[in-house]
Amino acid sequence: MTDLAGVFKLHDFEELARETLSSSAFAYYSGGAGDEITLQDNISAFRRRRLRPRVMVDVSMIDPSSSFLGTPLPIPVGLGPTAQHRFAHPEGEVATSRAAKEAGVMMCVSTIANRSLEDVAAVGDAPRWFQLYIHRDRGISKAMVERAVAAGYRAIVITADLPYPGYRERELRHPVVYEGEAAFGNFAGIVDSEGAELLQLLDEVVNTTVTWDDVEWVRELSGLPVLIKGILTGEDAALAVEHGAAGVVVSNHGGRQLDRVSASVDVLEEVVQEVSGRCEVYLDGGVRRGTDVAIALALGAQGVFIGRPYLFALAAAGEAGILRALELLSAEFVNALGLLGATHVRQLKRTHVV
Ligand SMILES: Cc1cc2nc3c(=O)[nH]c(=O)nc-3n(C[C@H](O)[C@H](O)[C@H](O)COP(=O)(O)O)c2cc1C
Question: Count of domains in the chain?
């Protein structure tokens, strides 16, 4: 059993996960596209930034709480949509969902999760968004959106950066082996996914025909706020607003899609300026420290999501691992707020970062 008391930073979970995961599962979780330039840059771009603390402020009471599209949350950090949690835990996304519920954080559930969106929701009432890959057969997506609404998901996050899967060399070198129950829970009874290879399923799911018109379609269909994930330019952020998006997620899919696109934090301000308060802006990619969260918020993000760190934590120590990861990030964030001279997330300002 992993000794969590000896884990002091999110990075530590990666090495622990390497010991427990098969080489193919580790390759799937950790890898990026091409030369992994964007993957590395997501981390280095945060590291390049410096903070400008303000002193002589009474910081005896610090409140790190926030809200995502109006839902109050204890910290401005959520669990981003990632596929295939069963590599890390036999109960897959249900284990993740229990941890998210206990911590009270937002969880965004993937279309290509192993467990169905209903199984995840059955863990109990908690803030959840559903991530949608729009299927080339719109009837399949329509049914999935309706199920997400019925199961109490509070928003639909359309992932826009996967018209084709990224060229991920680590996955080619260590092909993922799907055994037994490697089902894609949301597709049970819809496509023959039992024992299917991920790439085979992606070929069904991945859709080269998704356009801005689909945003209005999903909005009307669901009656829920819709966010667009995978925005990397001011131009597309403006289009997202024009098509009624309630939010955008500045993201390069954790460096897994097009290599050599900018680090998320490097394009955050461009997007924030373009939308100018017309929708909420979130960021994912490379968030590993409380100071990263503070930087993203100071640059205008409403909140951030993490991906790999919680997958590694789940693999290393199950639900307790995810809870420890969130506890560390939260404690670091509170510490950063206090040392920056801010008592609340709203006090984080552009002038805190250079
Ligand atoms: C193993 C893995 C699977 C992922 N699966 C999905 C997915 O199904 N849908 C999606 O929108 N994004 C997916 N992503 C991207 C994440 O939502 C997120 O953009 C990325 O992990 C953030 O970067 P980070 O890992 O550096 O925190 C996945 C990422 C990883 C690492």
Answer: 1
